[in-house]
TrEMBL record:
Gene3D superfamilies: alpha/beta hydrolase (3.40.50.1820). This is AB hydrolase-1 domain-containing protein. Belongs to the peptidase S33 family. It comes from Diatrype stigma. Pfam families: Abhydrolase_1. One of its GO terms (molecular function) is peptidase activity. InterPro entries: AB_hydrolase_1, AB_hydrolase_fold, Peptidase_S33. One of its GO terms (biological process) is proteolysis. Keywords: Hydrolase. It comes from the Eukaryota. Residues 9-94 form the AB hydrolase-1 domain.
Length: 169
């Protein structure tokens, strides 16, 4: 995240509601009526207002993976101040994305596949077995950097601590 010191571009790493340093709502685990795309778009809208990004030079929005879907939904509303939407590794369709994830998992060692399948079926996202197995998946298909970026490690650690959003969606 060297954009600020190198180019004078401030960067806000947005922790979506229920993730990392944002508000956690474990009592809503499994509540698919609550955890809707519209909630996340509204929260992003609130953050843009709070940071006063609509006026002045405007802002750029980067959406990666699930954040890409949110970025598209947010940008479709043509919010004042949004200058550019940048998407990376976004998914256009949840069902196709899930099929792609299953295809990737099938390429992992069988013992890792079994652990992931068992833990997902049981909603067990906190166990060390799950953390170890998902680390293999992440290292194989998500980020091959060695060492992993500090921000990614922090995000993955938080995901394991409170799987409310991940487990519901």
């Amino acid at each position: 995240m060297k954009l600020w010191p190198q180019y004078g571009l401030p960067v806000v790493l947005y922790d979506q509601i229920g993730c990392a340093a944002s508000t956690h709502l474990p009592q809503t685990a499994g509540d698919k009526d609550f955890w809707q795309e519209s909630l996340f778009v509204a929260e992003l809208d609130n953050l843009v207002d709070y940071l006063k990004l609509r006026d002045g030079p405007g802002f750029h929005l980067f959406g990666q993976s699930w954040g890409g879907l949110l970025g598209v939904a947010f940008a479709a509303r043509q919010p004042r101040g949004l200058k550019r939407l940048v998407l990376a590794s976004g998914l256009a369709n949840i069902d196709l994305s899930e099929k792609g994830i299953q295809l990737c998992r099938s390429g992992l060692p069988i013992d890792v596949q079994r652990v992931l399948e068992k833990c997902v079926q049981e909603g067990d996202y906190k166990s060390q077995a799950y953390r170890d197995a998902i680390a293999v998946f992440q290292k194989t298909f998500v980020c091959r950097a060695d060492p992993l970026p500090e921000e990614l490690i922090m995000s993955l650690n938080h995901l394991g601590e409170d799987p409310t959003v991940y487990g519901t969606m």
